[in-house]
Amino acid sequence: MPPRTNDDTPEKADGTQPAATESVDMPSPENADEHRTEEPTAHPDERVAAVRRVAAAGRRWRHAQLLGCAALLAVALTGGAIAVGAARDGGGAVPVSAAGAVSPALLGSGDLDASITALQKHLKGQPRDFGGWATLGLAYVEQARTKGDPSRYPQAEKALKQSLELRSDNDQALAGRAALAAARHDFDGALKYADEALKQNPYSERALSSRVDALVELGRYADAAKAADTADERRPGVPVFTRYAYVRELRGDVKTAQRVLERALSSSTTPGDIAYVASQLGQLAWNQGDYDTALTHFARALAADENYLPALEGRARAQAASGDRAGAIKGMEQVVSRFPLPGPLVVLGELYEERGAAGDQAKARDQYTLVDAWTALARANGVNADLDTALAAADHGDKAVALRAARADWARRHTVHTADALAWALHVNGKDEEALPYARQATATGYRNAAFLYHRGIIERATGHTEDARTHLKAALKLNPGFSPLGARDARGALKTLEADK
284: closest CA among 312, 306, 305, 256? Predict the structure, then answer.
């Protein structure tokens, strides 16, 4: 799609328009009617079908509108127009070299494997297309992320290296290196490559997004907020809006996060973008304990892409939290059979433990063993898996390993997630006095996370701060009473004991 004229630029996250000198690529907004869904009590499959019916009507409306304005858009065509894709590592648009014949829009076409095959075929005939190599590298990063297959990362590194050998100052490959480094949890490297890409192209959407990601994951939240503002000023659009929203959520501003995500969803037209943003809204609603709204958002995501992993996982979590254990187990089994990632594996294991049917304990142990297998594979392919290890092993593995991993991750970065993981690893190893400051730090930004509040309450109980423990356990269960199959149960038990001891 060609750049829009200055009279038709997309709004920024705050509702204003970017500076008149900017030229921003953005898809046309969707029909507002697509926000409507069926009643929250509908069966999950019925939700998806209803959303698809409404979306089809919206597409017909948009088609008529686009036919009418095609002549006007043609005026904006320029010889150096940037092709825009929707690769869903959240990075957004990828510039393509003028010599390249492959558009990164392939990455958002809905069939990533076919897109990669097409790119490989193209590069056999055009091996000097540095833009094509950069796009292929990003496609491998996306494939690794969506399929839970870290073995793709070395292939991504090789493709991006080839792109930079052909042209060392090409910003799309540098931005790709930033995305790859972030995927491997090398956030210092991600920040370095993002900055290098932005020196070449200050308006690189992917580099701007990766820079926000890196600062967030390094725990530099004030810097991340400034980076999100800069990205929103330069390249307002779906990838930047989602980062902007998450930075606000981490600081406790849920209303702004929701408003910005809704704006992003209204600006989404590709299936990849719709699935991505709707899933973000679903996760935000789930974090606040609003399971009906979460299920509605996940239904919209799955109507756009029935195989979208975060939506499938989010729907299963929301089903579990709202009491549909059978649906949750079925859904999470579907997820882990295709994408055996640590988070879903742990949740499925806990769902088996909670159900307690014949053979469920063995099934649960199998899931936790698979977590160990995934982290070993991840490490073998250059991924830092310390946080994943700490979170899983603290409750379902070797507690000493959990503590070593949590300490190692904290030595590299000070995020709320790492603070929480270290606090809990210290707790399960009997080091509650040392754990308490980290538990407090995990909740200090205002981030509304029920698991963090639960961990803090349990640690406060263990250290004799019983009133604080009651406060935070109550807050966890009020915020998101189904935050974890086993954790929520233990939180209720601990609170009941505290109340009895008053």
Answer: 256
Q: What is the pLDDT of residues 120-140, one digit of tens each?
A: 999 999 999 999 999 999 999
**Other beta carbons less than 10 A from residue 493's beta carbon:** 11
CA distances from 158 to 124, 165, 379, 408, 466 (A): 15, 10, 18, 28, 55
Average pLDDT, the chain: 83
Residue from 402, 473, 416 nearest 221 by CA: 416
At residue 83, the pLDDT reads 25
Angle between helices 271-287 and 291-304 (to 10 degrees): 170
pLDDT at 440 over 70: yes
Neighbours of 310 (CB within 10 A): 19
Q: Which two tokens stand for residue 387?
A: 């946080």
Reported as type and span, the H/E element at residue 316 is helix 309-321
The conformation of residue 106, written as its DSSP 8-state character, comes to: G
The span from the CA of 392 to the CA of 421, in Å, is 10
Higher pLDDT, 35 or 174: 174
Number of Cβ within 10 Å of residue 14's Cβ equals 14
Contact predicate 261/281, CB 8 Å: yes
How far is Cα 284 from Cα 287, in angstroms, rounded to an integer?
A: 5
Long-range Cβ contacts of 373-382 (<8 Å, 24+ apart):
373/340, 374/148, 374/340, 374/341, 374/342, 374/345, 375/342, 377/150, 377/151, 378/150, 380/150, 381/150, 381/151, 381/153, 381/154, 382/150, 382/153, 382/154, 382/157, 382/184
The answer to whether residue 118 scores a pLDDT higher than 50 is yes
- DSSP result, 45-102: HHHHHHHHHHHHHHHHHHHHHHHHHHHHHHTT--TTPPP---BTTTTB-----TT---
What is each CA distance from 317 to 1, 143, 325, 391, in whole angstroms?
37, 23, 9, 17
* HSE-up (13 A, CA, CB side) for residue 55: 21
Task: Say if residue 205's pLDDT is above 60.
Answer: yes
Q: Where are the alpha helices (DSSP H) in 339-431?
A: 342-355, 360-380, 386-396, 399-412, 416-428
Q: How confident is the model at residue 150 (pLDDT cuts 50, 70, 90)?
A: confident
Q: Which residues contact 5 (CB under 8 A, 6 or more apart)?
A: 75, 76
- Dig out the tokens for 492 from the structure: 């209720």
Q: Would you state the structure tokens that stand for residue 131, as one six-digit string?
A: 């833009």
338: left (phi over 0), alpha (psi -120 to 50) or beta: alpha
Task: List all residues 6 or more positions away from 62 whose beta carbon is below 8 Å from its beta carbon.
Answer: 28, 30, 31, 269
Q: Report the C-alpha gap between 130 and 123 in whole angstroms.
A: 9
**Can you give the pTM of this predicted structure?**
0.79
Model confidence at 151, in pLDDT bands (50, 70, 90)? confident
Distance CA 302, CA 308 (A): 6
